[in-house]
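Problem: given the chain below (187 residues), write out its structure.
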Amino acid sequence: MTSFSKTIQIPSQVSIFCKKNQLIFQGPLGILNFNPRDHIKGWSGFQLELLKQQNEQWELLIKNTEKTPKVQAFGKTLVSLIRQKIFGVCQGFFFTLDIQGIGYRVVIDQGRVSFKLGYSHEILLDCPSSLRVFSPKPNLLCVYSVDYHKLTLFCETVRRLKKPEPYKGKGIRFQGQIVPLRTGKKK
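Solution.
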């Protein structure tokens, strides 16, 4: 097992700053902070270096001298999270939630999302300021964000309001998600 060393190419429109063990990514779509200690418990042995190549291209070098499988796993996770942040400030992330069921709908009003999901009351959710939420149809909810972690957290919170049930398939699901339907009792 060799020591961990990996380089990440940084696009020209992205700037990276280091401040008190925290990485700050700045790109055309916004700014993201990343503290590796929040995501990886074994972070302490890793070193980050910004290197400049001959063609004015920057790259981020991540290295660790330990040779354990755990360090390799932590290193690959760290590389994946940093690439995710770079992609977020360059392009962003977009999810579409599909709401299926008779009378199920979503309404967006002043940063609050209101769901009618067959309960006796409406469910209201406050949308975080870092997300952009819109609804082109009453049964579709589109969510866009630069931060993948906050986006998936919000989408999973929405999805848990009414998970797809296995007999009729009613509920909230990601667009394109296939829910296997069970057959009911037969006489």
